[in-house]
Amino acid sequence: MALVGDGGFLYACGELATAAQERLPVTVVLVDDGGYGMLRYDFTHRDEEPLGCDLGSPDFVALARSFGVLARRVTVGELGPAMADGLASGGPSLLVLEAAFTPPLTTSPRWYRAQG
Prior knowledge:
Elements: E1 2-5, H1 6-11, H2 15-21, E2 27-32, H3 37-45, H4 60-66, E3 70-74, H5 79-88, E4 93-98, H6 111-114
Parallel strand pairs: 1-2, 2-4, 3-4
Protein backbone atom coordinates (compact mmCIF):
# COMPACT_ATOMS: atom_id res chain seq x y z
CA MET A 1 0.00 0.00 0.00
CA ALA A 2 1.29 3.46 -0.85
CA LEU A 3 -0.34 6.85 -0.35
CA VAL A 4 0.96 9.61 -2.62
CA GLY A 5 0.00 13.07 -3.83
CA ASP A 6 -0.32 13.83 -7.51
CA GLY A 7 2.64 16.23 -7.60
CA GLY A 8 5.01 13.79 -5.91
CA PHE A 9 3.72 10.89 -7.99
CA LEU A 10 4.63 12.69 -11.20
CA TYR A 11 8.29 12.71 -10.18
CA ALA A 12 8.51 8.94 -10.52
CA CYS A 13 5.38 7.67 -12.28
CA GLY A 14 7.59 5.36 -14.34
CA GLU A 15 7.76 3.13 -11.29
CA LEU A 16 4.39 1.84 -12.43
CA ALA A 17 6.28 0.08 -15.23
CA THR A 18 8.40 -1.76 -12.66
CA ALA A 19 5.36 -2.63 -10.56
CA ALA A 20 3.65 -4.04 -13.66
CA GLN A 21 6.71 -5.92 -14.94
CA GLU A 22 7.40 -7.52 -11.57
CA ARG A 23 3.69 -7.99 -10.74
CA LEU A 24 4.25 -6.33 -7.39
CA PRO A 25 1.26 -6.61 -5.03
CA VAL A 26 1.07 -2.89 -4.28
CA THR A 27 -2.00 -0.67 -4.31
CA VAL A 28 -1.23 3.01 -4.80
CA VAL A 29 -3.76 5.57 -3.58
CA LEU A 30 -3.07 8.79 -5.46
CA VAL A 31 -4.68 11.91 -3.97
CA ASP A 32 -5.30 14.22 -6.92
CA ASP A 33 -5.75 17.85 -5.86
CA GLY A 34 -4.39 19.31 -9.08
CA GLY A 35 -0.93 20.25 -7.84
CA TYR A 36 1.35 20.68 -4.88
CA GLY A 37 -1.24 20.87 -2.11
CA MET A 38 1.20 21.38 0.75
CA LEU A 39 2.92 24.27 -1.02
CA ARG A 40 -0.49 25.74 -1.91
CA TYR A 41 -1.43 25.51 1.75
CA ASP A 42 1.75 27.29 2.84
CA PHE A 43 0.98 30.20 0.52
CA THR A 44 -2.69 30.54 1.45
CA HIS A 45 -1.95 30.13 5.16
CA ARG A 46 0.24 33.25 4.86
CA ASP A 47 -2.44 35.08 2.83
CA GLU A 48 -0.20 35.01 -0.25
CA GLU A 49 -1.13 34.16 -3.82
CA PRO A 50 -0.04 30.56 -4.54
CA LEU A 51 2.66 30.47 -7.21
CA GLY A 52 3.79 27.39 -9.09
CA CYS A 53 1.47 25.08 -7.16
CA ASP A 54 -1.10 24.12 -9.75
CA LEU A 55 -0.33 21.37 -12.24
CA GLY A 56 -1.92 20.23 -15.44
CA SER A 57 -2.61 16.61 -14.54
CA PRO A 58 -2.53 13.70 -16.94
CA ASP A 59 -5.25 11.10 -17.00
CA PHE A 60 -3.74 9.02 -14.20
CA VAL A 61 -6.07 6.08 -14.82
CA ALA A 62 -5.10 5.92 -18.51
CA LEU A 63 -1.42 6.30 -17.59
CA ALA A 64 -1.57 3.35 -15.19
CA ARG A 65 -3.50 1.23 -17.65
CA SER A 66 -0.89 1.97 -20.33
CA PHE A 67 1.57 0.07 -18.10
CA GLY A 68 -0.93 -2.78 -17.64
CA VAL A 69 -1.82 -1.69 -14.10
CA LEU A 70 -5.40 -1.96 -12.86
CA ALA A 71 -6.68 1.56 -12.20
CA ARG A 72 -9.82 3.50 -11.42
CA ARG A 73 -11.09 6.75 -9.96
CA VAL A 74 -12.74 6.50 -6.56
CA THR A 75 -14.59 8.71 -4.13
CA VAL A 76 -13.80 8.83 -0.42
CA GLY A 77 -16.81 6.58 0.19
CA GLU A 78 -15.57 4.00 -2.32
CA LEU A 79 -11.99 4.00 -1.03
CA GLY A 80 -12.21 1.17 1.52
CA PRO A 81 -13.75 -1.45 -0.78
CA ALA A 82 -11.54 -0.32 -3.68
CA MET A 83 -8.42 -0.75 -1.52
CA ALA A 84 -9.55 -4.24 -0.56
CA ASP A 85 -10.10 -5.09 -4.25
CA GLY A 86 -6.69 -3.74 -5.19
CA LEU A 87 -4.89 -5.66 -2.47
CA ALA A 88 -6.81 -8.85 -3.32
CA SER A 89 -5.81 -8.60 -6.99
CA GLY A 90 -2.30 -9.84 -6.17
CA GLY A 91 -0.73 -7.34 -8.54
CA PRO A 92 -0.28 -3.61 -8.87
CA SER A 93 -3.24 -1.25 -8.85
CA LEU A 94 -3.81 2.50 -8.75
CA LEU A 95 -6.73 4.28 -7.12
CA VAL A 96 -7.13 7.94 -8.02
CA LEU A 97 -8.92 9.91 -5.33
CA GLU A 98 -9.90 13.45 -6.34
CA ALA A 99 -9.78 15.34 -3.08
CA ALA A 100 -8.14 18.30 -1.40
CA PHE A 101 -7.20 17.82 2.22
CA THR A 102 -5.76 20.22 4.76
CA PRO A 103 -2.42 18.65 5.68
CA PRO A 104 -1.72 17.98 9.35
CA LEU A 105 0.32 20.68 11.06
CA THR A 106 3.43 18.54 11.46
CA THR A 107 3.96 17.70 7.76
CA SER A 108 5.46 20.99 6.54
CA PRO A 109 8.68 22.36 8.03
CA ARG A 110 7.62 25.94 7.23
CA TRP A 111 4.36 25.98 9.19
CA TYR A 112 5.96 26.81 12.49
CA ARG A 113 7.09 30.15 10.98
CA ALA A 114 3.55 30.99 9.85
CA GLN A 115 2.19 30.69 13.39
CA GLY A 116 3.49 34.11 14.46
